[in-house]
Amino acid sequence: MTGRLLIVHGPNLNLLGTREPEIYGTGTLEDINALCRAAAAEHGLETEFVQSNHEGVLVDAIQAARGSADGIVINPAAYTHTSVAIADALAAVGLPTVEVHLSNVHAREPFRRHSYVSPHASAVIAGAGANGYQFAVEHLADLLRG
Ligand code: DQA
């Protein structure tokens, strides 16, 4: 199989490793990217990564995925709970998408239980830590294989 996955990381995920490690673990964003790269390579898929603390940059990256990627893994971080723009971008490109959260957002503050992104995701993985990204890549590989 050939194909390309876009892995999108939202705000503050650049601080992984030092950011609230009791919630998000001690692995860095680069560790997560390496995990994604390896999981994707197992299925012959290439990966492309973007992290931004700016909503519009994430919207631009999702839009650019149309025509250049076959699937999206996204942890929208805090924008999960606020961003109609990111939800609209995912709907517009219509690529198979998996939403990932390191923490179990349903076991935390009530405002984290609502996601604007979930209606546009074929799967949602929360609370599995960094492994969630690997599961997401495997799910997309299954979908793309058909
Ligand atoms: C998060 C959960 C969000 O509620 C939070 O704003 C994040 C990270 C997670 O991966 O658990 O920044 O998406």
Tell the overall outline: globular
Taking the sheet with the most strands, its summary is: 5 strands, parallel
How confident is the prediction overall: mean pLDDT? 98
The rounded Rg comes to 14 Å
Helix proportion range: 25-40%
Distance between the termini: 11 Å
Q: Helix segment count?
A: 5
Using DSSP, what is the number of strands?
5
Low-confidence stretches: none
- The helix-strand sequence is EHHEHEHEEH
Strand order of the largest sheet: 2-1-3-4-5
Class from secondary-structure proportions: alpha/beta
Bound molecules: 1,3,4-trihydroxy-5-OXO-cyclohexanecarboxylic acid
What share of the residues does DSSP label as strand, in percent? 15-25%
What can you see in these coordinates?
Helix content is 37%, strand content 19%. The chain is an alpha/beta fold and 146 residues long. The chain has a 5-stranded parallel beta sheet, with helices on both faces. Helix 2 (29-42) packs parallel to helix 5 (131-145) and helix 3 packs parallel to helix 4 (84-93). It starts with a strand and ends with a helix. The structure holds 1,3,4-trihydroxy-5-OXO-cyclohexanecarboxylic acid (DQA). 1,3,4-trihydroxy-5-OXO-cyclohexanecarboxylic acid binds next to loops. 1,3,4-trihydroxy-5-OXO-cyclohexanecarboxylic acid binds at residues 12, 75, 77-78, 80, 101-103, 105, 112.
